[in-house]
Amino acid sequence: MSSLDFTALLPLILITLASLTLTLIVAGYRQHRLTMVATLIALVLCLAVIPLAAAVSPQHVPPLFIIDRYALFYMGLIFTAALAITLLAYGYMKGLVDQPEEFYVLLLLASLGAAILAASNHFASLFLGLEILSVSLFALLAYPRRFQLSLEAGVKYLILSSASSALLLFGMALIYAETGALGFGQLSTLLSTGALSSEIFFLAGLALIMTGLGFKLSWVPFHLWAADVYQGAPAPVTAFLATVSKGAVFALLLRLFVQVDGPQHHTLIVLLSFIAVATILAGNLLALLQNNIKRILAYSSIAHLGYLLVALLASGNLGVEAVTFYWVAYFIMNLGAFGVVTVLSSPTQEKENLEDYRGLFWHRPGLAGIFTFMLLSLAGIPLTVGFIGKFYIFAAGVEATLWLLLFTFVMGSILGLFYYLRIIIALYQTPTIEKEALASPSSLPLMGSLTLALLTLLLIWWGVYPDPLMRIIQAVAMALI
Amino acid sequence: MILIALLAILIVGGLVAWVAERWHPLWPRFISLLALGCNFLVLLALWLWQPDPFMINGQGAWLITLDRPWIPHFGVRFHLALDGLSLLLALLTCFLGLMAVVASWTEIKYRIGFFHFNLLWVLAGVLGVFMALDLFLFFVFWEVMLVPMYFLIAIWGHEHRHPASFKFFIFTHSGGLLLLIAILELAWTHHQNTGELTFSYLDLLGASPDPETAFWIMLGFFIAFTIKLPAVPLHSWLPDAHTQAPTGGSVILAGVLLKTGAYGLLRFVVPLFPVAAAEFAPVAMLMGVMGILYGAVLAFAQQDVKRLIAYSSISHMGFVLLGVFAWNAVALQGAVIQMLAHGISAGALFMIAGALQERLHTRNMRRMGGLWAQAPRIAAISLFFAVAALGLPGLGNFMGEFLVLLGTYRASVPFAAAGALGLILAVVYALIIVQKTLHGEPEEQRHFTDFSTKDMVAMGTMILILFWLGLYPQPVFDMAHPALEGLQQLTME
């Protein structure tokens, strides 16, 4: 490996070192605030070296990684999200009676896994990244280990993850049997030269890989775990699961899709189109039936993964841009929405029922306002970043003339409006007097509130003036294609 | 810059009104009056300072424009402009905004600042809709105004406010999404034909997609606008929303929001797709006639005053739809006058209904009876607006309906004849209001205050405007004429 390789890999190396160092710190001296500050410093450092790595990109680090603008962009997104979750989680973890410090170590490890996914260019690194991410997530999900729901969520995710890993491995094996290659680049050259004798094994392998990744992305019909796990997990971990873990897997999927020239495989496209339609409809319809905010947001995030699939299928330059832009929007909206749940909750008392939010506007106007913005953005109402994201996907869909998918998207958005409005209406209902008394004006965690305010600012800023972000994303999309 | 200022005054005014609630509950009300009054005067000045205020002419009839790049990646521009048509509707918007503030003066008792914030932001959105010349920008305003309107209904509405606000939002947002896809397809077709990606109205006028595509895109626009109008099979959100909204909200809904749908048809549907719209005109006119008759018949069957006015709005907006698709000079002028006159008369009727509800705590007409004896001012004014709504010659509504029917007669005799039946049905329901609420013996001996001076000033202004529109509408014709002629020329080519 040359020094250029090291420079390119700096973000990955730093975050690995950071998680090790943090483990040592925690082993030596347990102090919640110190651990949290160390985590923040580590993440900021990782973010700071991204421009250094960008200077030498695109850099292949054979055979496992490719560090290009695309990978670095997603790494930036992942680290920023981890930063936001650390800030949000601090207030929440204070409520945990015993030892909140390892939470941050696990958070860094999970981010490492996610970052590896964003940069991986080989099935081996894909699998490694995915396993690092998943294993840290089991522990994170079950972190408040005295609570049955969290344990249940952890176990569910564990079983699901092993199943999806098995499928993934089998898929890789089939592809290896057919092509003798495990690197995405090799695959792409093999495919373009038409060296494949029969496509059956290759497609079956690809389908199995899609299934394995589909579990992680909670596409229908692989979505059954999502709502339970979201509900059971501690609120900040739910935020992490919804954003970072899904975003990294999708980033990888998009890279794979572009490398194997997805649009060329008709069967795959048909299959994914079915999945997209089913995901959008089922996600939205099931969300309608819920009374638990975390479950509603879980199903809504399933639906949003369906929308992203529409952009993926549109492919082309605009499709890739749409996916990337939508991920930025998705990160902001979901971190914000789960963030509101987080700052109101504590490990002993998760505020997750719609009832808990009734009349929030009357005693916490700021928080209710932030939540309203997040929900309106999820619903895709203009002047929020969610609208621009939706517009991007619509534009990509219209360009690729995916009418069926677009109309499903419209149907899904209309259905979605029902449950977003239901939450919003609950926020603004006049509370009964006893409710008012219950809502003790306990102070909110300062850092969490600041983070939420910042997210709202970004949500509106990029919703009103998305041009700077669009320029960056154009460059990112260019790097991939 | 004036155009930006118009929006900024309302947006900033809304924020200030929200904050000002802390000091005194009167502050938000005065700030709203100030912001809207300021806008109204600016618009009026803009009109009167034209070289020849009663005959606006010139290239494209744009009085004032503002064009800045916004999202270059998609060719989206921040392009606002006013012509005679937009100016008239903008004036109506600010005027009814003032009325809505007056109407909510005593009705809104909690979260006054937030109420006025929402009110001003709805009006900012509506003004934006009337001024936007970039389809993306138009869509943004179109959707943004829904949110504060939704809050107005959902927070300050009457007993069944939640389902009503849901219905309102879902219907109009569904239409909005269709509109968005239609806009995108139009822009992309243009992009394929010319290689230039733009959402500019003026550029897209020449987009000329192939007939089949044009028909589908036109349908997307048409459905979105007729939901808002509303035309008959798509109307079912309107009676609920109007009935449940607070008085100020109803005034804005009936007076201004419905006009955005009509404006969309006039400004976008026919000029952008002249051929497809001409082919589609019989269906659209049929929908217009259906709306006229259906709205009038159902209005007749209502017990709830606000519901009655809501259904009568459907009937009156049917005339606008008829006039727009008859697409000749007379019918278009009629449609514009009808939009203004209905804005004023429906706004006034909702204010009266709101005043009655505040005093009697019911909207049921069976329980009203005998108002003449108890509140002569309210009664006299109700009578005036009831006969205005039924189309008494000499008042604005008559002028609008008459011109629409005259124009429709040239385009299609059967539709004109069927539409004229609506005038008869209007008499029935208007007289029912008068009979049930004003005459007869009061059910119980009630004591309540009559209209105050403030209310009388508001009502008096509206009465004068209706007289003006009915007796001397020429200035309005002159003002709208160049814009309408410009639109018509677009479809000739």
From TrEMBL, chain B:
One of its GO terms (molecular function) is NADH dehydrogenase activity. Signal peptide: none annotated. Residues 132-418 form the NADH:quinone oxidoreductase/Mrp antiporter transmembrane domain. InterPro entries: NADH_Q_OxRdtase_chainM/4, NADH_UbQ_OxRdtase, ND/Mrp_TM. It is found in: Endomembrane system; Membrane. Keywords: Membrane, Transmembrane, Transmembrane helix. GO terms for biological process: ATP synthesis coupled electron transport; electron transport coupled proton transport. The keyword Transport does not apply. Its main location: membrane. It is a multi-pass membrane protein. One of its GO terms (cellular component) is endomembrane system. It comes from the Bacteria. The chain crosses the membrane at residues 27-49, 86-105, 112-130, 136-156, 168-188, 214-238, 250-274, 280-301, 308-330, 336-356, 377-395, 415-434, 455-472. The keyword RNA-binding does not apply. Belongs to the complex I subunit 4 family. PANTHER family: NADH-UBIQUINONE OXIDOREDUCTASE CHAIN 4. This is NADH-quinone oxidoreductase subunit M. It comes from Nitrosococcus oceani C-27.
